Structures
1.
Amino acid sequence: TPPTQDAAGPASTADAGKPLNVGFFGFAKSNGFAQGTFLGVQQAAKANNASATFVDPNFNAQTQVQQIQDAVTSKQFEVIVIQANDNQALIAPLQQAVQAGITVVVEFSVIGPKFDTIQPQVPGAISIVDLPTSNGKMLGQMGKDACAKVSKDTCKVAYLEGFKSLPLDNARTEAVKAELATDPKIKLVASVEGGYTQDSGRQAFQNVSQANPDVDVVIGASQAITGAAAAAGNSNIKFIGNGASTSNVEAVRSGKWFSIYVSDVVANGAKATELGLAKARGQQVETAVDEASLAPNKAKGTKEALDAVNYVSKYSD
Amino acid sequence: MDTPERVNRSTAPEITVSGIGKRYGASTVLRDITLSVAPGEIHGIMGENGAGKSTLLKILGGAIAADFGVVKLDDREVKIAEPRDAIAQGISLISQELALVPGLSVLENVFLGRWANTGSLLRSRRDADHLERLLAETGFELDPRAMAGDLPIGQQQQVEILKALARGAKVLCMDEPTAVLNEAEKAKLLKVIRSLARLGTTVILVSHYLEEVLGLVDRVTILRDGQHITTEDASGHTPESLVGLMVGREVDFLIPEVRPVPPEAKTVVQVAGLSSSKVKDVSFTVRQGEILGIAGLVGSGRSETLLAMFGADRTTSGYVQINGRRLRANSIREAIKAGMALVPESRKEQGLVMCRPVDENIALSTLSGRSLGGFVRVAREKAAVSEISHSVDLRGARRGSLIADLSGGNQQKALFAKWLLNPPAVLLVDEPTRGVDIAAKARIHGMIADLAAKGTAVVVVSSELEEVIGLSHRIHVMRQGRIVAEFDRNASRDEVMASAFLK
Amino acid sequence: MTTVTAAVSEPAEKKFKLNVRDFGIVFGLIAIMLLLTLNTGTFLTGRNFINLFDQAAIVGLLAAAATLCIVSGVFDLSSTANLAVSAIAGVMITQHLGVIAGFVGALLVGAALGTVTGLIVVSTKVNSFIGTLAVSIIYRGLAIVITGGAIVAPLPEQLAAFQTWTWPSLFGLTAGSVLMVAMTIVLGIVLWRTTFGRRIYAVGGNKEAARLSGIRTGSIHVAVFAISGLCSAMAGMILASRAGSAQPAMAIGIELTAIAAVVIGGTSILGGHGAMWRAFVGVMILTVIGNGFNLLHWDTTYQQVVTGVLILLAVAADGLFFRKRTG
Amino acid sequence: MTTVTAAVSEPAEKKFKLNVRDFGIVFGLIAIMLLLTLNTGTFLTGRNFINLFDQAAIVGLLAAAATLCIVSGVFDLSSTANLAVSAIAGVMITQHLGVIAGFVGALLVGAALGTVTGLIVVSTKVNSFIGTLAVSIIYRGLAIVITGGAIVAPLPEQLAAFQTWTWPSLFGLTAGSVLMVAMTIVLGIVLWRTTFGRRIYAVGGNKEAARLSGIRTGSIHVAVFAISGLCSAMAGMILASRAGSAQPAMAIGIELTAIAAVVIGGTSILGGHGAMWRAFVGVMILTVIGNGFNLLHWDTTYQQVVTGVLILLAVAADGLFFRKRTG
Ligand SMILES: Nc1ncnc2c1ncn2[C@@H]1O[C@H](COP(=O)(O)OP(=O)(O)OP(=O)(O)O)[C@@H](O)[C@H]1O
Ligand SMILES: Nc1ncnc2c1ncn2[C@@H]1O[C@H](COP(=O)(O)OP(=O)(O)OP(=O)(O)O)[C@@H](O)[C@H]1O
Ligand SMILES: O[C@@H]1[C@@H](O)[C@H](O)OC[C@H]1O
Ligand SMILES: [Mg+2]
Ligand SMILES: [Mg+2]
């Protein structure tokens, strides 16, 4: 028989005076993006009478599952803020955590099968995420903007996907393609795996530009675009990066790249932590937040938008 | 599946091979072999190293496939593509290169692949009982639970023999089964073969021991350079006449006269109180030009004494001195630097790197001497290797040949060549002529005697008593890790045997 | 002859010694567990053991299969790619024919793909390491082709039944853990007490000797790969059951964790040696180390360094102090 | 003796035949390249070859080192963890002492860590597969400890000089590619013609026979791991040079790609066999397959399936039609 759902919900709510412990289950300690988020987590924790700990799964989803289970056992944290390395493997352990009275905040990457909703898919959790579908749509829009500046009849665009085997990446890719397809001027000449490292991006770009020497716009993960732009040297190609590390922001503001999709990781981490702590202390909070709404210019990081707020990134990759 | 313990021996078929041929790349190793073996016959196959004996047996046993020709059993043509086919026909092969699974026990190896079982659950007890009977019949002494890989090579050979017996084979093909056995074990095996033949089993036997063959077989086939020379009744032959047929010329194969050690010869080797896990307090000396023989049963610690002297086995006490200089314990490199060379007993495990070319193997232990600034001086190496190969009569090696592609006897010669490439001051040899043909054996004996005559101190371990007694100036007998007796070269076989067994 | 008799007559003590040596790695596991029991209040609790077994289920199933493969002298690096395809197939069948058909279907697909892997490796004579690596790329690709790169899930009304492997069962363990333990025991008996098991040792220990004894070495390897596929499918169904869905990137890289667990347990990577309980102990060592760290509240920055050192210590101790070396 | 003479005098034909067989895998590479040349206008261009070599640089360096390791009978799974630590150390030294010191320092750190890996594996007698896996976990942890998980970069004014490995040099190839080719040639000669190379083959082919020939098998292995560390550091500096920075997660998993390349080239995973050119061919096969796909404009959904099949075909063809089998 299936286990009976613990209907009671959070077993206890802490009073405001008690210091709380926040566990930040980031992608990996070796990941700048996660480190940036942790900065926000730490700031919010400090401001709200709590401590913050980075629990490192080193990009491994199964390790992360284990860490969540063990956190439930050891009752080390009242609040869990998680950047999931897998959108499905973590559902069950996080449910356990919720049932054990821990406040769960799903941060940045969606947990659950649906990539087009910001609503929490782990019952009882708070969801503050960046949707791959709206992310992809925005990347597509920026691609259209870039193409508008290309003075040719057709604008050739290449998209560097993440990994073909990741549904999350595929959902994003579909959204990018759909958005680009609305502009008859645009021809998508390549959509290939570009991965999440500079080296994989460099390699993908070399091959794409070999096959399409006249490509006008290249869109992809910020690390891949960094590798691609380095391989391109001085060219007229308009690069659009998905990510906003210091070097990404600098590349756009200096005019080397066309634009980036901005995630304000510090703001995201801080907001997620604030929501989590508030809920743990018995307050009513928002349970679904779109991170794009926290970023400058709704995440559309053009030079003008970034200059306008004099945007400074807090993480490097 | 239950194991039929003894098949009806009278069903052994007449075996006829006709037109059998085998090529490896450009070289033909068997050419148009035609012969037949009668049911219940003991048939000897003889020839020089590389003549193609093992190849022929492997074809019969299905280990390799012939390129030409057919095998018939009682006039019925059979296809033997795999060992499984041969086994199904009642043919069992005991190959020259032992084929045991090192991590399984003696018991498990003897019944390899055909363990007693009920619905595939093992019934080890039944196999154990069966093995006990086989041990009693053969007189072999083996611990059924010992790991095959831990056994000395002679005992491994016994396991191979038991394996073939356990299958109740009608035709038993044995490739040099006695090469690694000592006198006593050999005698037991020959007894077993005779009694099998009496019960109707056909035995096809390859061996380099002329007396042994003549005393055992009904008929003998001679191969030379992959060709069938003749098949004749054994009764009309003497060792000399067989050698003549094999080699096609006269050879002198008696152990050469060893020159007496001059009384003023210095002591080169001094072993003092040497102990290791298998060796207990062994002390002896060897003088310049002297050949010391060590006799004993398998497992008595002879090989281990050599290994301990050479720094290869960890010693717990005692030391070795060469020319008055005491060697650092457990350092093979220091032993080699001091001029010591060890020809180990197992060429496959200890001696040769099977997947490497012949030249590279021979040059391996003396690389430093033929290199400049770390680079191998290939031309120099080639010249030296070619010279030494010539003097040990190494055959069948083409350019780039792997050691694994040589015949067993030629591998042994390569092993010997490896340690003679730089003439050693102290030569330790363990079973030096295992598997080599009679002419080559004489050559190796001659070389050992020559080296001694030029001043090398030699220690010979051999399970062939004739070899030990014939070559040595003095003989030590070991039992359970200790030296228990000492003889001079006039000792009789029986005396030496007795002291190896006694108590 | 005296020597032989002597050897036989010093058995009792000898045998005992051998056993203690053989079980060296178990003491490593016990030592780590003792340490954790003394240093945390939470390690030695029923709840935690239920977690431990649940955490070990996936790697445990893969390691049990990997033991058969490794002992027989092959690697199956395609096991988790097979896992993904089987789980996806299982979910798709579930959508059309129901949960039970889905589970059964997944197992059939897993075993079939395993058989195909085995046939490819055996017939091309390619080294299994590289052969199964190539096959794993193909299977992952297949998973993408089947799903179009998307997630597949059973129908909403099937979900509760589909998640059966996460339910508590025997001793409160999750059904998935129980399946893992059961398979470990079954395959352990197969390896230890059946003719098939002996053939696996023989083929892995000396393939030529096995062949000369009439063992069909190819069939043994195909069978072993088929079992590996079956275990992959089981692991896949447990993972899908936990997640409520399946996708092409499932369990990437875990085949290496499974191999590591097998080797940490003391099974020789060279084949012909080893035992099923060793895989279990290896899996438990890896799981307990991870679990312990999380319970100890240590800084995870040092976790990796310490994990590496612990694995090294466990294996080295086994080699240096306990197990008999051959060679 | 007559035979010996005869043998030496039937060389020409024989030698040629042997070579054709030996070079089977090269034909696999040529076939793929021919296919791409005929089906794309872009494959056979200077620019693309410059790209190919650049893409092959990292795996090429690691595969050259892996060849030494594998031939000598060990694996070094810690190579890319070492790569990360060396690159990080190189960047940190650059910050304080300049670019040249940084590069030299990285190489020293890489070689030193490699030596440590070797000493650990040799002294604990742990199987190298599991030993270096544990070491790799430790080194990755070390990288996180040193950097606190952050990225490290040379000072802005050092950047141009630091990126020297991405500059075009000989034949327009990037300096990184040239370094890879040079190391492959140097290590190839070491393996082929030096006493050290001979000892590597001997130790990998039969460790006991090597030991009894007076070879210090431990020293050989330590030396091989040290060289592996050196190559890792070179690869690390090229990567850092491209990126303008270094970080703990660099090049994760690429050690397996390198091993795959070595084996695809035809070097036996069992040790004692193989050659350096084989690593290069293996690396090129993998690189060309990836490159070709993107040039062909095929639907990338099928890319993985086809990649796997091509690898399998290349290796199987080598085994079935060309190379002589040794049981
Ligand atoms: N795999 C192989 N490749 C190439 N040549 C081979 C191979 N196996 C055997 N040979 C060659 O075939 C010939 C016959 O070898 P075989 O082993 O049958 O000799 P043999 O008569 O048994 O010799 P010995 O008395 O030394 O055991 C030899 O010249 C040997 O080098
Ligand atoms: N037997 C051996 N086992 C392992 N390493 C060795 C061995 N002999 C030499 N070396 C190492 O190889 C390197 C070269 O040493 P050495 O000069 O003694 O040998 P060589 O290269 O064979 O000789 P040569 O200088 O005559 O070319 C040294 O680093 C040494 O430590
Ligand atoms: O840059 C981010 C990467 O670090 C994370 O792993 O996934 C999302 C990316 O945008
Ligand atoms: Mg022979
Ligand atoms: Mg002996």
2.
Amino acid sequence: SCGDSDASSGTDNGGSGDGAITMGFAQVGAESGWRTANTKSIQDTAKAEGVDLKFTDAQGKQENQIQAIRSYIQQKVDVIAFSPVVETGFDAVLQEAKAANIPVILTDRAVDADPSLYKTFLGSDFVVEGEKAGQWLVDNAADADANGDGTINVVQLEGTTGAAPAIDRAEGFADKIAADDSIEVTASQTGDFTRDGGKQVMESFLQSDDSIDVVFAHNDDMGLGAIEAIEAAGLEPGKDVKIITIDAVKDGMTALSEGKINYIVECNPLLGPQLMDLAQKVLDGEEVPARVLTEESAFTPEQAAEVLADRQY
Amino acid sequence: MTETTTRVQRVLRHPLLWPVLALVVLVLVNVVARPSFLDVRMQDGHLYGNVIDILRNSAPVMLVALGMTLVIATRGIDLSVGAIAAIAGAVACTRIVGAGDEAALTTAVMAVTYALVVCIVLGAWNGLLVSVLGIQPIIATLILMVAGRGISMAVTDGQITTVNNPFFSDLASGFVLTLPLAFLIALAVLAFTAVLTRRTALGMLIEAVGINPEASRLAGVRARTIIWTVYAFSGLCAGMAGLVIAANTNSVNANSLGLWIELDAILAVVIGGTSLAGGRFSLAGTFVGAIFIATLARTIPNIGIPSEINYLFKAIVVIAVCLLQSPRARAVFRVRRTPRPPAAGPAPTAEPAPATAGVRA
Amino acid sequence: MQTPPDVVATPEAAREPVIEMRDISITFGAVRALDGVSVRLFPGEVHALMGENGAGKSTLIKALTGVYSIDSGVITISGERHEFHSPAASQEAGISTVYQEVNLVPNLTVAENMLLGREPRRLGAINVREMNRRARRTLLHLGIDVDPRSVLDEHPIAVQQLVAIARAVDVEAKVLILDEPTSSLDADEVEKLFTVMRRLRDEGVAIVFVSHFLDQIYEIADRMTILRNGRLVEERLVSETSQLELVRLMIGRELEVLDRLDRAAPQTDAEEGTPLLTAVGLGRKNTLEATDLTLYEGEVVGIAGLLGSGRTELARLLFGADTADTGELTFRSERRKLRSPRHAIDRKIAFSSEDRKAEGVVGDLTVADNMLLALQASRGWLRPIPQATRTQLVDDYIQALDIRPADPQALMRNLSGGNQQKVLLARWLITQPEILILDEPTRGIDIGAKAQIQAKVAELAAQGMSVVFISAELEEVLRLSDRLVVMRDRRKIDERVNDDVSVRDVLETIAGEARAEEAPHD
Amino acid sequence: MSTATVSPASTWDRVRTFTPPGRYLPLIATLALFIGLFGVGGMRYDGLSDPQVLISLLIDNAFLIVLGVGMTFVILTGGIDLSVGSVVALSTMIAAKTLQMGWSPYLSIAAVLLTGTVLGLLMGLLIHYFDIQPFIATLAGLFLARGLTYLISVESISINDPTFTSLAFKTVYLGDYYVRWTAIIALATVAVAAFVLARTRFGRTVYAIGGNESSAMLMGLRVAFTKVGVYVISGFCAALAGLLFALYILSGNSLHAIGMELDAIAAVVIGGTLLTGGRGYVVGSLLGVLVLGIIKTLISFDGTLSSYWIRIITGVLLLAFVVVQRFATRRRS
Ligand SMILES: Nc1ncnc2c1ncn2[C@@H]1O[C@H](COP(=O)(O)OP(=O)(O)OP(=O)(O)O)[C@@H](O)[C@H]1O
Ligand SMILES: Nc1ncnc2c1ncn2[C@@H]1O[C@H](COP(=O)(O)OP(=O)(O)OP(=O)(O)O)[C@@H](O)[C@H]1O
Ligand SMILES: [Mg+2]
Ligand SMILES: [Mg+2]
């Protein structure tokens, strides 16, 4: 549905020529299992393909990321890649990179800057992820009404307030469920993307409302926390309360295959191969699309059981 | 001056009055928003309800805050508790996962013991930096705050490690005598600490060191040993908190476990009436403070405050509680024409003893 | 007893007082610190506030200068009703005050401390050069030899006290208040201070002076107001009151201890006794040159010397408060290095510091805890003192030293200066030391209590304790000690058995030594 | 003790026997260590010895330097200000939002500075007049400022105003090297603060309060004014730092600057200022910021460390620095 690409990818580059590519990669941080898998994928692929990777962990701070990018420029790397901490505010440093003739590739998250400042953006679309989740709920509305009172009461476990995935996933989800009047988000609260947060918020929701039909969690971890809370309340997750999450990390997939989660929208962290490939293309002067979507799907319990064995993360 | 008036006066002057009052008000707010808030019922052989959740969820902050109370009493501060908690969780979980029989009781016991020993060592390390090398507590513990997260990530290799051990899980979710085990653990540590400090002379010596280190040294108090012990104890408490948090979700996320718990703990300590300037401390106050923090956390989803207003709400509550607690503020707000209370003169003098110590030592 | 001031007919009654305080009352919780006290201050007069420890002198002063707000009463200044709400306000109105505890900031230089808040400025910026020059001039004027650029906490408490005085007298003030300024000064310094006070008095300044040295009061004061237990006893002219009468007014009864005082302490021939501690070549860079000293069982060794002569440093080395660079200590027959006070306490040595605020008082603890601190520390935390023993010990010493308020649960910081000193003394007596080192133990102690303490020291020595007694008051040292050590310029210059040594003798020894080394360096 | 003052020594004698006063020792030690760190890094990684790296350090940390300045005032009085990170975020948000609404950039700047200052004032009043511990009052400030940021907008807003962007990119060339205006503003702030602390009554009162607050009060100093004043200054500096940060990243975002207060406090303390108050210099805080910055730079030049090693190494470098600094300054007596 997405990936309306095709803005031409600008000029060529200084290039390295001597074979080994030096890539500077500024990661957001290591805030989740998803992110570590992402980092690992990039580091492993770089090693396998002989790319000299300069890696920095910005620990969630944009200023650290900017400083890291600036140091890559000073070190004259061949290509810079980074997952922006936030969408805005990278114009200045991207301009410096451009002036130094170093191509930039964005991964995972987009930036809100002049598209000519970077070559391409590789990553998933958070809004689409939310939409997929919402669509599934609309499609399965009949089953979802666990207590059969005619309305489907959804509680939402949001990600970190202000974070792009949280905002976009909520937006996509809301868009889709608007189609069905019986579906209503009755409570929504941040669980900070963590299991502990998800559990505590869910506990409270369960105490104050006994007509919850569906939980929509912005990531697997909060969903897993919610499962624990639901079990502690003496209910059966996946049956008494339906659960939809996003990410498809291994623990989530396991729960899904056990029927504790009902639906997971995948958000693939294994960007390494695609990134290295793009980098090579960019350095070779090939055209690359301005927007490269990661290959992602969504899983039901049955599908999860099938793919679980060879999930890498 | 009848018997009753003096008793009322005594209650009014009791240091715990205001924290308790704040807690009561907060609970009332919740009850008004949702009348079923205080309902407790039996379920699966244990109690179930908001109150029970609050007690259980208060355990980690309470544990950390107990250690923090003693550290603060010696004029210190421990920023590394969150990182130590993460290390404890990481060590225990990787041990359990790596053990032969993942679900065995001995596995859980060994893992927990191992993790706690590590935490004591880390706490002692903080104590070493503060008491022997004389590095300022905030910086000494900042080092472990930064590096500790890295260590815990190194232990788990950055992955969220999930464990399947019912005994470990019981640390957070288990019930004993229908009450949450986590809360009982915190209560036990509270009792232990109270006995340790108030039944022996330790509490008084800690306070003396916190109020006037140089005078205490000259009176023969082993300030170094005391400071060292207190940090090690704080490490131990943080470790227990980390285990409870990890057990709560049967997993450890090295990056987020115990993040910012130091602020919550310090807040709990201060709400409980212990001054950050060191000296006199109140464990009972810390207990109330921790319950307060947990209740506050529950209040937000309970009365349905939107995520983007969470902080604003917290700010207002914190300011309100502190104003309630400050005698000066109460005096200002009280509609009486009496001039300033005499205490408005020289504030309790935190003497310049450290400076003197610096020159003389 | 409660004589209203108006009844006291004085020839000056016609004169207008600069400050009049009427029926001032202040309560702290349950303690009535001041109860309807009235005081008048006349220009060009030194007015002494007299009273025992805890009588309310310092509180009265703080009520005047706006540190405490009064519960009831009226303050008039130059005929107008007025109440200050902060020390800053009183200062602006021309009241310059030296409070009882040295209230300066330790981290700034001497010059800054003297001129804080009124630094000379040029183009809006503080003129440091001018500031130092002004400070140096004032110090020189007072005969204080201190580098104005040095940081305050490098100096012993006595020097700090002088700096505080210098700060106060440096301003053009209508009223100068000195709360026990002389408590750790030696005779020389006191004389210099009096010279300045006289000059200011002659210029028409009203001076309030608090001191527990009756001699000083009789030397400098014109009028006095006597307080007892927070109440006004009487206003008197000094010239019309005998010392004995004054003491009776202050204490409210005849003071029999005073007589005992003159019966000098029993002289023991201690040299015969067992040496408890022998120091050979004890010294520390920049603070004390190598010194030999032997302490025998059952004797009082007085250490005499002028301000900064190294007495405190010697005491600190004997106690391990500072570590010695050179020298050896032998306890009975065991040769040991003292690495911390703790070591010394384990060897039954006790040391009461001259700087009670920084090195003695643990303000936020109760009187009881303060008293028991050293004993508890030496027992270790695992062995708390049993409740019964605690109560017993504390009550005994509160009574023996007449500590007021006699409430073991009172907070230490709320005690008057003199009472704090008594608690600290009790702290060490409770440990039952073999060697007791007292550095200015009578600092700020009232005359009755001083006599008590001196008697106590003599008694302890008689029981076999070895006491090192340091005091700025030479008479006191001479009266008590069996043996006398004289120090000058950070070294021992003389040691002799105290057989009727007089103050003159000691001063001559010190001066003679000075003459002897007139020519050489320094 | 009766000897008169020492006769004035000859100039040569004074030069010959010159030893820096003890109180400057921490500063000197910090500087020496910083240079050492930079030197070692320069030998290990090429490109790092480039003076531009040093200048970039100033550019990249301009906002932190300004924060450190404000924090120094507060810490010198024995207080602490936890709110600064949130105030930075709030400032970026106010700037971004007002510009988006079409305000004049100058009005927007004024609004930011005013907000920060007022927040500082409120915290100062709470602390002094209501006797609330600085840690708690400013923690409430932290929540409040962050809360206000969320209230303005949860999503990030970019800044496209031409005045802002031109200010952000304005550079001054010094030969081959360039420096941004933001860095110059930061250095100017340090200079002004150093002057205020050393040479004004306000500044000396700040030290006096840190030395002993009740003494300062009894000495008749303007304790209330000064104590509230330092929080006002800190609030103002946080707002100014927020502006610099907004220029640095040209956006407003509610997730900016989380935990930045710890960086600021760490910088101040590493710079030799005592947390108990009364001792320290703003120049030390500048050095502290540079030390933190050079540690980060060293790590990104290395580039081979994984996420967790980065944290561990940061901790170890910090430790090494603090311990060496401690020993260097302890030697004096
Ligand atoms: N802040 C306070 N809180 C409670 N009690 C106080 C406080 N300040 C003083 N007091 C009490 O008031 C009484 C008078 O104390 P004050 O300091 O005025 O005595 P003083 O005459 O100066 O004695 P000294 O000669 O020992 O200095 C004492 O009993 C003291 O304990
Ligand atoms: N901590 C210190 N650092 C540097 N010099 C010191 C220190 N303490 C004392 N001195 C110096 O050592 C000398 C001896 O001081 P000490 O306090 O022992 O004198 P004292 O004879 O006890 O005089 P006082 O009457 O002031 O108590 C003084 O010149 C003093 O300035
Ligand atoms: Mg007094
Ligand atoms: Mg002395």
